[in-house]
Amino acid sequence: MKRLLILCLLSLPGTIHAQLLQTPSSRWTTDRWEALWIAPQEEGTRYGIYHFRRKFSLANQPTRFVIHLSADNRYRLFVNGEYVTEGPQISDLRHWRFESLDIAPYLKAGENVLAIQVTYYGEAAPVYLMGRRAGLIVQGDDKVESVVNTGDAWTYLHDEAITPVVFKPGQPDVSRQYYAAGPLDRVEGSRYPWGWEKPGFPEVDWKRPATVQTGAPFEARGYGDEQWELLPRSIPLMERTYEPLTVLRKADDVEFRNAAPFTRKLPYLIQPGKKTVLLFDQVQLTTAFPELIVSKGKDSQIKVTYAEALFNDIANKGHRDSINGKSIHGVYDIFLPDGGDHRIFTTTSYRAFRYVQLEITTGTEPLTIEKIGSWFTAYPFQKNATFSSNDPQLKRIFDVGWRTARLCAYETYMDCPYWERLQYIGDTRIQALVSYYVSGDDLLARNAIEQFEWSLTYDGLTYSRYPSSLQQFIPNYSLVWILMVNDYFMYRNDPEFVKSKLPGVRRVLEHFQQYMTADTMMTVQPYWDFTDHSLNTRKIATESVNKRLTTNSLFYAYTLSRASELFAYFQQDDLAGRYSALSHRLTSSVKRQCWDANSGMVADSPEKKHFSMHSNILAVLCGMMPKDEQLELLKRIVGNRAIVPTTLYFDFYLARAMNQVGAGDLYYDLLNHWKDELALGLTTFPEGVSRSDCHAWSASPDFEMLASFAGIQPQVPGFKKVVIRPLLQKLDKVSGSLPHWAGKLDVAFQKTGDHLTGSVALPEGITGRLEWGNKVVELKSGSNKIDVN
What we know:
- By secondary structure, the protein is of the alpha+beta class.
- It has five domains: 14-159 and 191-232, Galactose-binding domain-like (Jelly Rolls, Sandwich); 241-376, Galactose-binding domain-like (Jelly Rolls, Sandwich); 391-498 and 680-699, Glycosyltransferase; 516-670, Glycosyltransferase (Alpha/alpha barrel); 710-789, Sandwich (Maltose phosphorylase, domain 3).
- 24% of the residues lie in helices and 28% in strands.
- The chain is built from 17 helices and 37 strands.
- Strands 10, 11, 15, 16, 17, 18, 19, 20, 21, 22, 23 and 24 form a twelve-stranded mixed beta sheet that branches. It has a five-stranded antiparallel beta sheet with strand order 5-4-7-2-9, with no helix packed on it. The chain has a five-stranded mixed beta sheet with strand order 8-3-6-14-13.
- A hairpin with a 2-residue loop joins strand 35 (767-772) and strand 36 (775-779).
- Helix 4 (425-439) runs antiparallel to helix 5 (443-454), helix 4 (425-439) runs parallel beside helix 6 (475-491) and helix 12 packs antiparallel against helix 13.
- The longest helix has 22 residues, at 573-594.
- The radius of gyration is 28 Å and the shape is globular.
- The N and C termini lie far apart (70 Å).
- Residues 1-15 and 258-263 have low confidence and may be disordered.
């Protein structure tokens, strides 16, 4: 069977996939490589698809054959015609990742071929990709394996059959929204080198590549002018699972062979000279590489449009299951069959979609669609947590929240898979907490914390999103990075990693002191002064005489108090004391200048013209109010239509404040926002403003329901002791489990009036306490029976 862009029909066997990724020896992380970066002779900085090949012979089939591999921007690896994997792990040029792979299971005695597709996006690149020019490097692990080292023994072909379909922010195709996720593909089948990845393919007109430089690990000795500084991959390979696309919601002018039309079974036959529309429904949102297998159909065109939902109009989606009277808007690929048999069309990068529409125009011969489906891909998180209660909708929220989190995690976390694919700090803090509680895998969170640290500028701001070829600064997101470090400090047992981040934490904290006024409040910040989409800080500052902002003041105070805990733990007492005192000064100043006795709320500035939920949430989180007044303050702001509300993003901070004051009843009511989304037929949770149907920050209930209703939280840094504080005001029954780093942690509770019964099972070596009302029950490792009045 011939292939295009070339995905195999069967997923990799699990045993092979598990053994594929290797840990490189120090030889490849400290010393210069023997292999050279190779590149096309063409300019190489513009968009281009390049196929590289290396034929070599082996006397016997090896039991081990390790290669170290990277490319700029992206590669796909085939060995003897079989798809193996793709990469490299997304990063920046000073920390350019490489994979170490044992490809022995794909090799044989005799002639073998290593075939690698390199995609360089150039002027059409998505914002999340940082690169310099098209390039490839392969280094064999030992003398035998060095036969595949990149150099002038390799050949390559510039594939001009694939060109980019570019979408820019604000286009009608993208609903006039901000789109930054990169181009789609136009594939001209008559120009494509079918079978290029297979042994025996004739390399007619293939060229010898240019050589650029030797492979150089991070901080390699030399002149310091390396284009790519290589670091080993720090996360697993991505999941790859086939998903058939079988729900056909609309079909015009199609003959269904071997079955009655209403069954709509493959294959589909479209006669010559027809214009046909096929609308498929994946039933739930997914992230996947589409795969379309067709025969014949010379001079046909297939336009494949991908959408999270159908539209009543350009701004209104309605119920996501409904298609009646609706139209599709979205990004699209163009496939042009060449008339051959069993052609496999797929894409250079994955797509996000629930609905897929094929608009087919046939030429002079019929077109047969033999198979249509996709290869699901995402970070390989496993769902190791459970949650249930006497309200079955909460479990539904938990399950949909987890799918949201999964689709927003690939080689980095990302805000949304359809629109941007950018790792924003505001989303990522929430995503990391969900990962700790539901999966127990912290590798992607560690990667994110490191990458944001790499983005630190000379003046102490991180990029708001990173990796990113386009710099953007949201100052408060630099503070959220510190909160991420503190979260890792509390939930994971890795103090040395946390300690390594303290210099960066200090740089950020000291940067913000320049925005402080003489009377200890924070002013409006440069760049994008963002707290939440619903809060217009610019307008508030414009109407403030001295440009003082409560939200900025309290968010800085909140971060200072958490940072103080970090420095105190590592016995840097001077800094801990300084940051704690500054936090207290800020909260005292806000209370003195912005507390409004008439409304019983904190105003957004000393002028007291504007009020928001955000300022009052932060007042609670900072402990600005006495503990016995915090609950009443939250009750006053919840549902108060006279003040600025939160969106699904800042509802995370609202939920944290509710947890702090023990208001499980308020959090239960807050989840009505998520129930409303389920009522619209969403299969992932949205941004909270009109755009994305899948947005990372809206997965926060997967963390908070376990933290609040099940009550599971760390008592001390490193989660070495646990505090269980179930908040069951509106629930009678809750059970949950999570993958604590020391083992599985289980709770099950039933409430009858003020009487709590149930059980708590703690991992070996972990102790804690249960708090219920005014009672405290000490918990030991292992099983604990709960019976508290």
